[in-house]
C-alpha cells in the first residue's frame, strides 16, 4: 500500500512509539496500544498513513453498499466489555436520505448504523504472523472504533484494491477533528419520575423498538426504568447467571439473537451458540461464523426484561456495566409477526430473580 502524503512529525513520533511498544508486546491490540500511549485508536491508525493505512472518504451512502463487492467478510463491533464478530456478506444495505442512519439486514450480517456519529474511516493492510490482514475501520468523533470490516481467506481479494482506490480521500493528512465525549444525560431522581405513567406506557408498548422513546418521554435511563417498572416487566438477576444461560442455550440448541453495540453501531447475531469457552475473565463463543468475547466480571447488573408487543410478550436478558452502560442483550430468535419461541422463554424464565 502506498500514498503520496507523508505523515507529520508528530504522527511519525506516535508511529515510532507504537513500534517500540509492539516490539515489546507483539500481541498487543491497537485499542490497548492506544490506551498505553494516551491517544485515541483513530490517532494511532492515522499515524500509519504512508505506511500501511489509507484514509478513505466518508461517503457512507456509497461506501457501505460497495463493501458487498468484497464477498465473504468478518465484521466486528464492540464496546468496552464485549466484542461481537460475525462472518458473512455485506449486502441488503440501506442508508437514509440524510445519511444519518443505515441498515444491513442480510441473513448473516445484521447491523443498525447510527451514521451521524461516524467521523473517519481507514483501509489497512497490516503484516501479521498469519500474513497480510486487510480491513476497513470506522471511528467516531472521539477517535473510538465504531465498526470494522476484515477480509477473510474467502473474500474477493481482487475487489479490495479497486474499492480502496475508488474511495481514497484526496487528503491523506493524519490530522483528526476530535471532539470531547458529550456529557452523559443525568437521570432525574426516582422521586421525580411518574412511575405509574411509566408503567402504563410500558404496558401499552406494541413494539420493543419503541422502548427508547418511552425512556425519553419519562426522562429515565435504561437501568432506572428497569428498577421502577415493577417485577411484571423487569427483574434483577445475579450477573454470574449470564454465562450459564449461554451454556444452556448451546446445550439445548436454542437459537439466540445476540445484540452488542456502542453509541454508533449495533451488531446482531441470530442463530445457535455452540463452542463456548472460558479464558481468564472472558467468556467466549467460538463458532465458525460467530465469535463473542464477553468480560464476564464487567457485568454489574443483569436484568430479565419483558416488553409487550403486537406479537405477545418479548423477553430479553440485558447486561450492564457499573456505569449503567448496556453491554449486551439476548433474545430468542424471531421475526416480526411471529410470537416469541417457547424454548427461549422457558430458558429465560428458568433463573430465579434476586430479592430487592
Question: Topology of this protein?
Answer:
Blueprint: H1 9-24, H2 30-36, H3 41-46, E1 53-56, H4 60-66, E2 71-78, E3 82-89, E4 93-95, E5 101-105, E6 110-114, E7 118-128, E8 131-140, E9 145-155, H5 157-167, H6 195-203, H7 211-218, H8 222-228, E10 234-237, H9 241-251, E11 256-262, E12 265-271, E13 276-279, E14 282-286, E15 290-295, E16 301-307, E17 314-320, E18 326-332, H10 342-348
Antiparallel strand pairs: 1-7, 2-3, 2-9, 3-15, 4-5, 5-6, 6-12, 7-8, 8-9, 10-16, 11-12, 11-18, 13-14, 14-15, 16-17, 17-18
Helix pairs in contact: 6-7
Q: Within the CATH hierarchy, at the fold level, what is the topology of the largest domain?
A: Heme iron utilization protein-like fold
Portion of residues within helices: 25-40%
- CATH architectural grouping of the largest domain: 3-Layer(aba) Sandwich
- Strands of the biggest beta sheet: in what spatial order? 1-7-8-9-2-3-15-14-13
Helix and strand run? HHHEHEEEEEEEEHHHHEHEEEEEEEEH
Uncertain regions spanning at least 5 consecutive residues: 1-10
- First-to-last CA distance: 58 Å
Output the radius of gyration.
21 Å
Q: Outline, from the CA principal axes?
A: globular
